[in-house]
Amino acid sequence: MPPFHYKKPFHCKKLLWPPANHAVALLVSHNQPNIHSDTPLPLMNIKAFAEQTGVSAHTLRYYEKIGLLQVARNQSGHRVFSNKDLEWITFILRLKDTGMPLQHIIEYAEFRAQGDSTMAERQQLLQQHRDILQARIARELEHLQVLDNKIGYYRQLTGKV
Description:
The chain has about 160 residues and is mainly alpha-helical. It is built from five helices and five strands, in the order βββααββααα. The strands form two sheets. The protein has a three-stranded antiparallel β-sheet, with no helix packed on it. The protein has a two-stranded antiparallel ribbon with strand order 1-2. It starts with 9 loop residues before the first strand and ends with a helix.
């Protein structure tokens, strides 16, 4: 796993994360089959993860509740987030920014959680969203052209460029 660089260390229950000696963090798996207790991971608590992503802790908890995030827990039961979680939330935010409905993002996440056997379904969902996005961009470009034409018309009338 590639090293993870934090913007700044943060404190979590009298512990400094990331640990200075990069000690192995013990995890309790929470619906994440790829995480093992002996796997060294760069971890963040929910506050640091929220700061890193710009997503509130409340929203992160909600995303976990509805199944978008499958968050590991430490021995104390606190959520811990890794670089993989950062990559996943970044993709979720991109889908949201491009207008994908939350229900479709949840559906994509469910397929993702099922593994490689659902690649075709995930591709289809993304293709459908791409087609919708492409049509929306085309409409927006038409609107932009009409506005540019109207602005050009007023420039001619007023003599202001």
